[in-house]
Input
Amino acid sequence: METIEFRLADWDDLPAVCHLIQQAFAPLAATLPSRPSALDETVASLTGHLASGSQIFLAWQQRQLAACLLVLPPDDGCAEVKRVCTHPALQGLGSALLHHAEAQLRQQGVQRIRLATRRRLPGNLAFYQRLGYQEIARQPYAAEVDDERVVLSKQLAA
Output
């Protein structure tokens, strides 16, 4: 098995992170009723996330960025995870990266993680549920979009 390196992103990683997000989310644009908002991420927006205290967790394999996820600054002990994605040719690292991020966030005092996926991505919903995330809400998209935002949460053990 190939060695996986987990680490936090720094400023120099942001172009590669932006490229990975685009590669991972672009195929969804053809299958969803509205464009994934992840495709709006740019190096500038990711720079803003880091500058505001967000963390971007990375998984590297074979000297290539294989997976990433963005964690917004915690609010009242709860951190929001966004942009969970894996390189299309290097699938299978998402759960390992999420487990790593959970462990790091737990050490930082985060008590709960919240994230969201779309109803029209049942594979994503099942993935998060297998990892212990529980559905806590469904939020509609705009009236003309036949989809829902499925919000999930996971309590981190002390």
User: Anything to note?
Assistant: Helices lie at 14-25, 43-51, 94-107, 122-130. The CA atoms of residues 134 and 152 lie 5 Å apart. The mean pLDDT is 92. The longest helix spans residues 94-107.
